[in-house]
Amino acid sequence: MQEMSVVKKSIFTAVCLALCVVLPQAFHAVPNAGSVYLPMHIPVLLCGLICGWQYGLLCGLAGPALSTLFTGMPPVAILPVMMIECAVYGLMTGLMIKIIRTKKTYVDLYLSLIIAMLSGRVVAGLARALIFAPGNTTLATWTASYFVVSLPGIIIQLLLIPSIVFALMKAGLIPMRYPQNGS
N or C: which end of the chain has fewer CB within 10 A? Predict the structure, then answer.
Protein backbone atom coordinates (compact mmCIF):
# COMPACT_ATOMS: atom_id res chain seq x y z
CA MET A 1 0.00 0.00 0.00
CA GLN A 2 1.31 3.44 -0.93
CA GLU A 3 1.92 5.61 2.14
CA MET A 4 0.14 8.94 2.57
CA SER A 5 2.30 12.04 3.03
CA VAL A 6 2.66 13.69 6.43
CA VAL A 7 0.84 16.73 5.07
CA LYS A 8 -2.13 14.66 3.90
CA LYS A 9 -2.25 12.77 7.22
CA SER A 10 -2.12 16.10 9.07
CA ILE A 11 -5.00 17.47 7.01
CA PHE A 12 -7.11 14.35 7.59
CA THR A 13 -6.33 14.57 11.31
CA ALA A 14 -7.36 18.24 11.39
CA VAL A 15 -10.65 17.36 9.67
CA CYS A 16 -11.23 14.55 12.19
CA LEU A 17 -10.50 16.94 15.07
CA ALA A 18 -13.01 19.41 13.67
CA LEU A 19 -15.54 16.58 13.40
CA CYS A 20 -14.90 15.74 17.07
CA VAL A 21 -16.30 19.17 17.89
CA VAL A 22 -19.03 19.43 15.23
CA LEU A 23 -20.57 15.93 15.22
CA PRO A 24 -21.49 15.89 18.93
CA GLN A 25 -23.14 19.30 18.48
CA ALA A 26 -25.29 17.90 15.67
CA PHE A 27 -26.61 15.31 18.14
CA HIS A 28 -26.95 17.75 21.07
CA ALA A 29 -30.70 18.26 20.55
CA VAL A 30 -31.37 14.59 21.37
CA PRO A 31 -31.22 13.83 25.12
CA ASN A 32 -28.26 11.61 26.09
CA ALA A 33 -27.27 11.36 22.40
CA GLY A 34 -23.54 11.42 23.12
CA SER A 35 -23.76 8.27 25.24
CA VAL A 36 -26.11 6.54 22.82
CA TYR A 37 -24.76 7.45 19.36
CA LEU A 38 -21.08 8.07 20.23
CA PRO A 39 -20.57 10.74 17.54
CA MET A 40 -17.05 11.71 18.70
CA HIS A 41 -15.78 8.15 18.39
CA ILE A 42 -16.37 8.06 14.63
CA PRO A 43 -13.72 10.64 13.61
CA VAL A 44 -11.21 9.24 16.12
CA LEU A 45 -11.62 5.68 14.80
CA LEU A 46 -11.41 6.97 11.21
CA CYS A 47 -8.27 8.95 11.98
CA GLY A 48 -6.49 5.90 13.38
CA LEU A 49 -7.51 3.74 10.43
CA ILE A 50 -6.59 6.29 7.78
CA CYS A 51 -3.57 8.08 9.25
CA GLY A 52 -2.03 5.59 11.67
CA TRP A 53 -1.63 5.18 15.39
CA GLN A 54 0.28 8.42 16.08
CA TYR A 55 -2.38 10.58 14.46
CA GLY A 56 -5.21 8.49 15.91
CA LEU A 57 -3.74 8.83 19.39
CA LEU A 58 -3.41 12.59 18.95
CA CYS A 59 -6.98 12.87 17.66
CA GLY A 60 -8.26 10.75 20.56
CA LEU A 61 -6.56 12.95 23.13
CA ALA A 62 -7.15 16.34 21.51
CA GLY A 63 -10.66 15.77 20.09
CA PRO A 64 -12.52 15.54 23.43
CA ALA A 65 -10.34 18.32 24.93
CA LEU A 66 -11.09 20.68 22.02
CA SER A 67 -14.78 19.81 22.16
CA THR A 68 -14.87 20.62 25.89
CA LEU A 69 -12.95 23.84 25.30
CA PHE A 70 -15.22 25.08 22.49
CA THR A 71 -18.62 23.61 23.47
CA GLY A 72 -18.46 22.47 27.09
CA MET A 73 -19.18 18.90 25.99
CA PRO A 74 -18.15 16.45 27.25
CA PRO A 75 -18.32 17.93 30.74
CA VAL A 76 -14.99 18.43 32.48
CA ALA A 77 -15.91 15.73 35.03
CA ILE A 78 -15.90 12.98 32.39
CA LEU A 79 -13.28 14.49 30.10
CA PRO A 80 -10.28 12.49 31.43
CA VAL A 81 -11.99 9.12 30.96
CA MET A 82 -13.27 10.17 27.54
CA MET A 83 -9.77 11.26 26.50
CA ILE A 84 -8.33 7.93 27.64
CA GLU A 85 -11.05 5.96 25.84
CA CYS A 86 -10.73 7.91 22.58
CA ALA A 87 -6.92 7.83 22.74
CA VAL A 88 -7.03 4.04 22.95
CA TYR A 89 -9.47 3.93 20.00
CA GLY A 90 -7.17 6.03 17.82
CA LEU A 91 -4.05 4.19 18.94
CA MET A 92 -5.48 0.70 18.53
CA THR A 93 -7.17 1.23 15.16
CA GLY A 94 -3.89 2.60 13.83
CA LEU A 95 -1.87 -0.29 15.23
CA MET A 96 -4.34 -2.99 14.22
CA ILE A 97 -4.81 -1.79 10.64
CA LYS A 98 -1.01 -1.91 10.29
CA ILE A 99 -0.70 -5.40 11.82
CA ILE A 100 -3.77 -7.15 10.40
CA ARG A 101 -3.23 -8.19 6.77
CA THR A 102 -5.88 -10.70 5.61
CA LYS A 103 -5.77 -9.55 1.94
CA LYS A 104 -9.41 -8.47 2.36
CA THR A 105 -9.94 -4.78 3.13
CA TYR A 106 -13.30 -5.13 4.86
CA VAL A 107 -12.03 -7.96 7.08
CA ASP A 108 -8.98 -5.88 8.05
CA LEU A 109 -11.19 -2.88 8.83
CA TYR A 110 -13.71 -4.84 10.89
CA LEU A 111 -11.07 -6.71 12.89
CA SER A 112 -9.18 -3.48 13.56
CA LEU A 113 -12.36 -1.69 14.60
CA ILE A 114 -13.64 -4.43 16.88
CA ILE A 115 -10.30 -4.87 18.65
CA ALA A 116 -9.97 -1.09 19.10
CA MET A 117 -13.56 -0.68 20.29
CA LEU A 118 -13.20 -3.44 22.86
CA SER A 119 -9.77 -2.18 23.99
CA GLY A 120 -11.02 1.38 24.46
CA ARG A 121 -14.01 0.25 26.48
CA VAL A 122 -11.93 -2.03 28.69
CA VAL A 123 -9.23 0.60 29.34
CA ALA A 124 -11.81 3.34 30.01
CA GLY A 125 -13.70 1.02 32.36
CA LEU A 126 -10.50 0.18 34.23
CA ALA A 127 -9.52 3.86 34.43
CA ARG A 128 -12.94 4.73 35.80
CA ALA A 129 -12.95 1.84 38.28
CA LEU A 130 -9.36 2.25 39.50
CA ILE A 131 -8.64 5.98 39.19
CA PHE A 132 -11.63 8.24 38.60
CA ALA A 133 -14.47 6.50 40.46
CA PRO A 134 -12.98 3.75 42.62
CA GLY A 135 -15.63 1.76 44.42
CA ASN A 136 -18.45 3.26 42.33
CA THR A 137 -17.94 1.26 39.16
CA THR A 138 -19.26 -2.28 38.92
CA LEU A 139 -19.23 -4.78 36.11
CA ALA A 140 -22.98 -4.14 35.68
CA THR A 141 -22.57 -0.36 35.38
CA TRP A 142 -19.62 -0.78 33.03
CA THR A 143 -21.56 -3.19 30.81
CA ALA A 144 -24.64 -0.98 30.84
CA SER A 145 -22.81 2.24 30.00
CA TYR A 146 -20.22 0.91 27.54
CA PHE A 147 -22.28 -1.71 25.71
CA VAL A 148 -26.04 -1.55 26.37
CA VAL A 149 -26.71 2.19 26.26
CA SER A 150 -24.19 2.70 23.46
CA LEU A 151 -25.35 -0.21 21.28
CA PRO A 152 -26.86 2.10 18.62
CA GLY A 153 -23.51 3.95 18.39
CA ILE A 154 -21.58 0.69 18.17
CA ILE A 155 -23.81 -0.47 15.31
CA ILE A 156 -23.46 2.89 13.54
CA GLN A 157 -19.66 2.69 13.84
CA LEU A 158 -19.52 -0.85 12.49
CA LEU A 159 -21.76 0.02 9.54
CA LEU A 160 -20.46 3.48 8.72
CA ILE A 161 -16.70 3.49 9.29
CA PRO A 162 -15.64 0.66 6.94
CA SER A 163 -17.91 2.10 4.26
CA ILE A 164 -16.37 5.57 4.65
CA VAL A 165 -12.82 4.19 4.46
CA PHE A 166 -13.66 2.10 1.41
CA ALA A 167 -15.38 5.07 -0.28
CA LEU A 168 -12.31 7.25 0.36
CA MET A 169 -10.14 4.54 -1.22
CA LYS A 170 -12.41 4.24 -4.25
CA ALA A 171 -12.41 8.04 -4.64
CA GLY A 172 -8.61 8.05 -4.61
CA LEU A 173 -8.44 10.27 -1.52
CA ILE A 174 -6.51 7.62 0.41
CA PRO A 175 -4.41 4.78 -0.98
CA MET A 176 -6.05 1.44 -1.76
CA ARG A 177 -5.11 -1.13 0.86
CA TYR A 178 -4.57 -3.93 -1.66
CA PRO A 179 -4.17 -2.21 -5.05
CA GLN A 180 -3.64 -5.44 -7.01
CA ASN A 181 -7.15 -6.77 -6.29
CA GLY A 182 -8.94 -3.42 -6.10
CA SER A 183 -10.05 -3.57 -2.48
Answer: N
Distance CA 76, CA 68 (A): 7
Cα distances from 157 to residues 19, 37, 42, 54, 75, in angstroms, run 14, 9, 6, 21, 23
Sequence-ordered list of residues with C-beta below 8 angstroms from that of 155, at least 6 positions apart, any chain: none
CB atoms near residue 12 (< 10 Å): 21
Number of H helices, E strands in the chain: 8, 0
The pLDDT tens digits of the residues spanning 118-176 come to 999 999 999 999 999 888 888 999 999 899 999 999 999 999 999 999 999 999 999 99
The domains located in the chain, with CATH, are: 6-170 (1.10.1760.20)
Spatial distance between the Cα atoms of 179 and 138, rounded to a whole number of angstroms: 46
